[in-house]
Amino acid sequence: MAKPLPMPIRLVAAVLLGTAAIANAHEHHMDKIPEGESVSADPIDSILWIHILVQTIGWGILFPTGMVLGIIRSKWHVPVQTAGCVLAIIGYFLGHKHKGRQFTVNAHAQFVPTIMLILIAQVAMGVYLKLHLEKGIHGKIRKIVVKAHGVVGKMMPIVIWVQFLFGGITAMGFCRGEHVGQCAAHFIMGSAFVAYGILLTIILLVGQLWLRKTGRSQEFFDSLVIAAWGCVNTFTEHRWGTAWVKNDLQHTAMGIIWWCAGLVGIWLSRTRDGRPKRNLIPGIVILLTGWGMSAHPQTLPLSSMVHEVFGYTLMAAGVTRIVEISFVLRDRSSVNADGADPNSFQYLTPFLLYASGFLFMGATEEQMQVLSDAHVTHVSYVLILFSIAFLLFLFTNMLIHLYAVSTWSSNSKSDDENPHVNGMANGHARADRRVRDAEEFELEGLISDDEDARPLVDKEERQAPASRS
Prior knowledge:
mainly alpha; Four Helix Bundle (Hemerythrin (Met), subunit A); 2 domains; two-stranded antiparallel sheet; 16 helices
């Protein structure tokens, strides 16, 4: 017999369904918006500030934390996600009840029904799984729902990130008319740098076992993405058949070097006998991209200085990546077998990518014009953006730590409770058990094992050809 759902879950589900029904019913007042503008001159009122704060806590902190708690199957998963849903509902109504600044039709408001439907679907799947219906047809349905619930849960941080960007753009009235193209380029490329930094952080701290399991080096995946991205930029940065304007040629040339270098990186990512091999191509591409952006022609002096700092930061990320591979790791995949205790120098490249991303997202034409009119110096602005990068870097490390500590402690507990043969539980290595755990949790990108699980990577690579023969 199915267990009755807790009252908080039932209330959240009911309110979410009601919220979806009125998602498009709100009338947006636009009587104070001047003709040709996207926002009114009114200040952001206290209700809208509370809306921003509540949504930041609910969507930006609680939901990602709840996602990790779900991955590790913590008892706190449901309470944290329920609290996030409550704040999301409160923030939704606050966003429709504010006064002060008015907005025209915008991407942030138009995306609300979509993101709320995603949330409703996620809650519905969670409720279904909580009922523990496993007999008959429900057994097959449950397997599908488990996978869908996991996929949607891991997709939520990306959806939330996009909505947050839409919210910031809407609040300031940016990215309209002739500014759409360069604005989209800044936010997409900046987000890509941040995402790259997050992925490198995950691989650095908990992804070494998964990386070895793929039989590929980190540079294979990096080069593959660089080559694909370069192909896109080559044919989208300039409208072919028309005159070359502004920075079209530089953007297109940058796309060309990306796919050219990416192909080289893919080729160099394996040895002659097929083993994974580190290479410096992605680091060189990052370095060259930073150099190009540091000399990117700009209209405003402030914009030129911010782009210059962005370029130098990206160049530093490329240099630190090269130094890490060549001198810290000496072509190994990690300092030790499981990557649980990385060298402190290895944190530099991911963080510099976070900072580069925020610098690039914060350097659009309209943002630079507003700051220039307010006489804000590039030093103050850059320090603020670096501060935001530090906070996201901290939050990412905290979530990874939460996952890693729970996984390691659960494995240690099972070792203590099970009989040992030759010093190992049931005669099996811990690394093998963690592979099974990771497959069960369906999180191939967040895996780790103990420091003594395998020999050092260089020793393992020397033994690989013999084992294959």
